[in-house]
Amino acid sequence: MQKYAPWKFWLIVTVFVAAVMGAAPNVITVPSWWPASFSKPLNLGLDLKGGIHLVVDVDIEKVVAQQVSDNINVIRRTLREAKIRYRKLDSNDTQVSVVLKNPEDADKAARLLKKTLFGYEMNQPEEGQLVFTISEREAKEIRSYAIEQTIEVIRRRVDALGTTEPVIMRQGDRRVLVQIPGYEDSARAKSIIGQTAQLEFKLVDEKGDLEAALAGRIPPGDMIAYFEDGRPILLKKRTELSGKDVAMARITIDPQSNQPAVSLKFNNQGARKFDRLTKENVKKRFAILLEGVVQSAPVIQERISGGTAQITGAFTTQEAQALAIVLRAGALPAPIKVVEERSIGPSLGQDSIDQGLNSIIYGFIAVLVFMLVYYRMFGLFANIALAFNIILIAAAMSMIGATLTLPGIAGIVLTIGMAVDANVLIFERIREELNNGKTPLAAIDGGYNKAFSTIMDANVTTLIAAIVLFQFGSGPIKGFAVTLSVGILASMFTAIVVTRAMTYLAYRKKKKLKSLSI
Amino acid sequence: MQLIRSDININFLEKRKIALAISAVMLVASLALIGFKGLNLGIDFTGGTLVEVRFHQQVSIADIRRAIAPEGYEKAVIQEFGSPKEILIRVQNREDIESSVISTAILDALTNAFGADQVEMRRVEFVGPQVGEELKTAGMMAVFYTLIGILIYVMVRFKLRFALGADAAILHDIIIVVGVFSLLGLEFSLSVVAALLTVLGYSLNDTIVVFDRIRENFEANKKKKNPLDEVTVCNQSINQTLARTLMTSVTTLLVVFSLYFLGGEVIHNFAFALLVGIAVGTYSSIFIATPIMLSLEGKFEMSEEELKELEARP
Lengths: 518, 314
Fold this sequence. Notes:
The complex is a heterodimer. By secondary structure, chain A is α+β, with helices and mostly antiparallel strands. Among the domains of chain A are: 6-49 and 345-507, Multidrug efflux transporter AcrB transmembrane fold (Up-down Bundle); 61-137, Hypothetical Protein, Haloacid Dehalogenase-like Hydrolase, Chain: A, domain 2 (2-Layer Sandwich).
């Protein structure tokens, strides 16, 4: 019999000890001296422990368009300071354009504006007209920043739900993945995550003619807004204060109506603005808008310099609470939309774990019995290797921090079936060698040697499929690909190296062996 | 124990014309089914909302339909899922409302009708229309890239005609499994695509084992004084690996059966695709991959005479 290198035994022993240590946290509570990298139990996927999985789409183009149109103010101010007069100032999603009154001013204006409009490309399609187009690089930066900010805001909002270990990360160009394990109330999660929370304070135009405005003659600088019940009101377009000025928001009870309300505390800048607003507009009304809808339009009784305000409206306690959370967490830079949801209730998760474990156990037992009956002694070798294989998979997945999903369990079950394939290949080959008249020991050597390249080719091709699956799959499918890959690698080790060591130990001294129990 | 006698010698390749004819019929039938009857695509691909609820007392499907009808979901697909108390409700995306809140509306309607303590949310899945399209593309790309990857690997390790034989067998298996799903009207979801890719890996595994033996025997054959013809060598190889092919199918089927019967409703279709796929995959590595490989003999490589002729040239 070919000699079996001693280092391979040591390798097997080392891997075995490491595997048992790595898999242990899944079964028992490990003592504190246990090495840290071996102490993590398997990560269960949301489909097993229950929870909410959302993918939201961020309307980043809107942010870009907003930034572009904000430059109208920049241009207006710059030109006013330089005393350059213009006829028209306009913007669309990617461009701002200005038409100057005197085309002679074009050079001067271009020079000044180029300095302020950083990241824009300028051209002059006509005499006296300047068009600034946002550069792709600048737009990209804005988009990227918008996504980061969205993630930040969503994280603060999810944290306010009081859950543990939520996952919030970027997915692709304009999407954010939100996972909240162990949380059930998908409706509440969606409403808290999805609110843009655009809070605006605007003055009411008391002198404007609402009737005429509704007929289409809106006074310049004004806009029509509506209350929740559909009543119209004429407002000044200019936003006096916004969500950015809010430092703190919490739910209170409005003393007048006994209704839930949200009290606001402004930050320094906001307090100053609110102070000036109330000082200059005593006895006038201002409107509080949320997502563009007027919540209330109270009359300013006196100057308020304490930096606090209250939003009243027809809120339920829950709505008021949700509003306080989103105002505290800050506004989203862009509207977002849920484009995918996969939420699992806790009972289904537990059922999936139970059923998954059941199918692993029964599948495992069936294979063990079959192998033992069919290959006897060698079947036993294969079975020990298979048990080793399962421990190894559990350990490897725990240690690399992979997530076990329901399809992942299916992957393990399948691995059990396919892991014995390598042994079947070897054992059938040994039988063949025996039939060809080789001695038992030579047959073992021949079987292992000849089957090796076949096992290699067969497993590498399966690995290719698993890797592609990982690349293209989403969520649960990725989990399946991971267990399948780990399973293939582990099975090659156990089925080839480990069983070989066992046969060597069992037969190395039996030079006169007449037959094999195979 | 030994179920396959070691001196077994079935002339598989003699019957290859019959096998190819059977496969051709199955392929045409599958493609016709997929083309005309189509697939029962799950919300992963069509977009839409799926709500799985468990009632603590049995509730009739008609009552459920009545409960959600006022919300505008009278056309919802409502079915039992594993047990009469577990109900699956599927609705399409709608233009008029934000689709992600449909599940909330349905759950609210159910709680209002049957009481909050009666209804338990088991699962909510929502896929927006755009995401559905993306998943469809990603699924097809996955199958495509796997085929390419395998073609390259087998070509490097063997020869082009082996690679083409292997790919033909895989394509054969995938089309037939998809055809069976169309025939039975089973839901075709993302996890079924994962099962298809697994079948692909399995079928290939099987094919490679046979090819490996063929290559080994080809080499041994070349050294013989009176070399046998390719068909005979291939047939020998298939017979030599037959025991292994069947044993592995049995062990794999054992666990997939366990998955199918015990794994729960959620992975039922996944396990079913594996069951069909493993059966077809075992068949195809014997009756499709090798015959195709044989029929491509001399198409991509030069024969011995041609090689000699080439060397003889000045």
